[in-house]
Fold:
Amino acid sequence: PMRPRTAERMAPSPGWPSPMTGTLAAASSPPPVALPFSAHKWVALGRCGSGRGGRKGQLMEGWALFAEPFRVGEIVCLERRSNLQNFHAEVVGPLQGAEAGSFAGVQPVRCMDGSAAVVHAEPRKMARVLPVSPPRVLLMADTTNFRRMAKTQVGPRDAVLEIGSALGDCTRLLSCHAALAVGVDLSEAFVKESRRQHPQCRFEWLDFFEEPRRLDALWQELCAA
Structure:
């Protein structure tokens, strides 16, 4: 049988009650983790609360950052029946009340699709486009949320590098909205299949760690787009 250890011989484990006093023993703090993109604001969407959005205006988890209310001057994305038809617009007026009659419950926005037309949209079917400042890193839990970001946050003034483009479905979506979108993947087979399925899109077979110069050249191209 194991011999019982005395309190003097048993060193207290960090964060556990001390065998001598029953109080919490002092624990050394772990060194802070240095996150990349230190100038960016890191946002875990899963902790942001729910909000209404999507084509049907349903309640979605982690969507509070992008949901109503919308202020005049903000840029929003109007979600259409097809994801490929989404476009950005500027909010030009407040939410209309009951006194507006048939326009009650909608908000006027000016389309940024080249027409400059003013239309009235339901806020629950709009998504806030986050401003470029402060820059953010958005953390998403799954592919569905990633694609939702792709179809609402990217516009004609953006250039996008999708890392890990797999079979290219999201790159195709990005290409419909961005000035330039490039999908890169470590798998040569994925890149070949993506090019076959989406010949109108651009895909690159690239290992960032093995070919940093190619990555830098690609990044410069995107910045100049």
